[in-house]
């Protein structure tokens, strides 16, 4: 699908909803027949793909600055109900054949409360892969939690410079169980 | 002096679509000259073929003769200066040998030791506590293995490993 470039200033009125798009701003005005308690969804589309969407209520007009990295002239804008019924739209081109496009790289984030062991690896939101170094010998008893074998903790295949018997993902954070108790990853080190 | 070794498959191995086959099998030696017990320290399984979530059965078992038919695999040293393992590569699951990726299950009776299920996206790692390690004595009539009771949905991209310690 070729990227289209639309007019700088566009406006449409449909179902008492006025949609105005200028290069720096998207504005939605709701008419008198619209229930102020209603919730609508504003969608930004480009090249047949939904880029972003935001729920808004009809109590007041909606106006949002367009991010600098987005050229709104290449985008269509749609105002619809949460169930998908379209009220007003400008230049939205949906991709009817998404299977023809290259697929995006799949990424898997490990669910909360998964623990190594019995899992072998944990993947967090950054894509970091956490595991215990199964190729290393067990740590000496004085460096291991009481009653458990412990191994070096690995992050993306590199030694994280900690010895632990378990790695857990809980509350979106990575934790390890060491001879000194639980430690949590803060993005740079365990503390 | 106790020495540790690893028996493992290459990282992108394919398993047979038959289920209930040993992916790693090791049998303690039967000869007095090479007699040593084996202490199983940890085992793991993972796949890298795709990112599709699926559940998979796995088991650690002992098996008596007739043993599975395997691809021979030589245990690797954990410590570079250690001597080679008393366990050697073998395809018949015989005493004193180790192998991987069975093609034939073998008719010998199997006994469950550890049974578990795991999600293939997370992999599986078995690390016992020190009192829970599994010990196969020298000249035992059984071998020990890591099995898939049922064939996985995806047969390719698997890696398995078993770390053991030679006793005596």
Which descriptors apply to this entry?
heterodimer, A: about 190 residues, mainly beta, four-stranded antiparallel beta sheet, B: seven-stranded mixed beta sheet, 13 strands
Note down, in words, how this protein is organized:
- Chain A is mainly beta.
- Chain A is built from no helices and 16 strands.
- In chain A, strands 1-2-3-6 form a four-stranded antiparallel β-sheet, with no helix packed on it. In chain A, strands 5-4-7-8 form a four-stranded antiparallel β-sheet, with no helix packed on it. A four-stranded antiparallel β-sheet of chain A has the order 9-14-15-16, with no helix packed on it.
- The two termini of chain A are 49 Å apart.
- Chain B is globular and about 50 Å long.
- Chain B is 0% helix and 49% strand.
- In chain B, strands 2, 4, 5, 7, 8, 9 and 12 form a seven-stranded mixed β-sheet that branches. In chain B, strands 1, 3, 6, 10, 11 and 13 form a six-stranded antiparallel β-sheet that branches.
- The mean pLDDT of chain B is 90.
- The termini of chain B are close together.
- Chain B has 168 residues and is mainly β.
- Chain B has strands spanning 3-8, 21-26, 37-47, 55-64, 69-72, 76-77, 88-89, 97-104, 110-119, 124-126, 134-136, 142-148, 158-167.
- The chains are: A mainly beta (191), B mainly beta (168).
- Chains A and B meet through loops of A and strand 3, strand 9 and strand 10 of B.
């Amino acid at each position: 699908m070729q990227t289209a470039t639309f007019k700088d200033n566009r406006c449409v009125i449909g179902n008492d909803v006025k949609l105005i798009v200028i290069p720096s701003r998207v504005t939605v005005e709701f008419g008198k027949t619209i229930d102020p308690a209603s919730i609508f969804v504003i969608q930004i589309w480009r090249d047949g793909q939904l880029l972003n969407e935001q729920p808004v209520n009809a109590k007041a007009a909606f106006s949002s600055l367009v991010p600098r990295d987005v050229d709104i002239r290449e985008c269509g804008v749609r105002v619809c109900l949460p169930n998908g019924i379209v009220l007003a739209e400008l230049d939205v081109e949906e991709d009817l054949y998404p299977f023809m496009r290259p697929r995006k790289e799949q990424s898997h984030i490990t669910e909360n409360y998964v623990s190594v062991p019995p899992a072998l690896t944990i993947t967090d939101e950054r894509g970091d892969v956490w595991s215990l170094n199964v190729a290393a010998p067990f740590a000496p008893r004085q460096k291991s939690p009481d009653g458990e074998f412990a191994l070096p903790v690995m992050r993306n295949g590199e030694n994280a410079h900690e010895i632990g018997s378990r790695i857990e993902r809980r509350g979106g954070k990575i934790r390890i169980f060491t001879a000194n108790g639980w430690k949590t990853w803060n993005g740079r080190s365990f503390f | 002096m106790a020495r540790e070794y690893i028996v493992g498959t290459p990282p992108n191995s394919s398993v047979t679509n038959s289920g209930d086959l040993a992916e790693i099998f090791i049998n303690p030696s039967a000869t007095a000259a090479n007699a040593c017990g084996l202490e199983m320290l940890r085992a793991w399984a993972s796949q890298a073929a795709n990112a599709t979530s699926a559940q998979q059965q796995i088991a650690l078992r002992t098996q008596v003769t007739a043993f599975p038919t395997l691809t021979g695999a030589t245990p690797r040293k954990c410590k570079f200066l250690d001597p080679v393992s008393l366990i050697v590569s073998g395809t018949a699951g015989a005493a004193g040998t180790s192998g991987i990726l069975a093609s034939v299950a073998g008719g010998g009776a199997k006994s469950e030791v550890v049974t578990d299920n795991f999600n293939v996206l997370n992999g599986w790692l078995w690390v016992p506590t020190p009192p829970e390690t599994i010990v196969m004595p020298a000249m035992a009539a059984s071998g020990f293995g890591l099995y898939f009771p049922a064939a996985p949905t995806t047969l390719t991209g698997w890696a398995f490993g078993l770390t053991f310690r030679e006793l005596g």
